[in-house]
Amino acid sequence: MPKIDARLPKGMRDFLPGEVLKREYVIGVITDVFQTFGFEPIYTPTLEMLETLLGKGGEEADKLLFHAQHPGGKEQLGLRYDLTVPLARYVAMHENDLTMPFRRYHIAPVWRGDRPQKGRYREFFQCDVDIVGVASMAADAEIVSLLTTALGRLGFADFTVHINNRKLLTGIGIHAGVPEAQLGDLYRSVDKLDKIGLDGVKKELTASGIAGDAIGRMMDLLQHREGGLDALRQVRAQLAGVPVALEGIGELEQMVEYLGALGVEESRFTVDLAMVRGLGYYTGPVYETYITKPDNLGSVTGGGRYDELVGMFRGQSLPTTGSSLGIERIIDLLDLLNLYPPELTGTVVQVIVTVFGERTQGASLALANELRAAGIRTEAIMTPRRAIGKQVQYADRKGARLVAFLGEDEIKAGQVKLKRLSDGQEVTVPRAEAAAAARRLLVG
Amino acid sequence: MPKIDARLPKGMRDFLPGEVLKREYVIGVITDVFQTFGFEPIYTPTLEMLETLLGKGGEEADKLLFHAQHPGGKEQLGLRYDLTVPLARYVAMHENDLTMPFRRYHIAPVWRGDRPQKGRYREFFQCDVDIVGVASMAADAEIVSLLTTALGRLGFADFTVHINNRKLLTGIGIHAGVPEAQLGDLYRSVDKLDKIGLDGVKKELTASGIAGDAIGRMMDLLQHREGGLDALRQVRAQLAGVPVALEGIGELEQMVEYLGALGVEESRFTVDLAMVRGLGYYTGPVYETYITKPDNLGSVTGGGRYDELVGMFRGQSLPTTGSSLGIERIIDLLDLLNLYPPELTGTVVQVIVTVFGERTQGASLALANELRAAGIRTEAIMTPRRAIGKQVQYADRKGARLVAFLGEDEIKAGQVKLKRLSDGQEVTVPRAEAAAAARRLLVG
Question: Of A12, A408, B46, B340, which residue has the fewest beta carbons closer than 10 angstroms?
Answer without folding.
Answer: A408
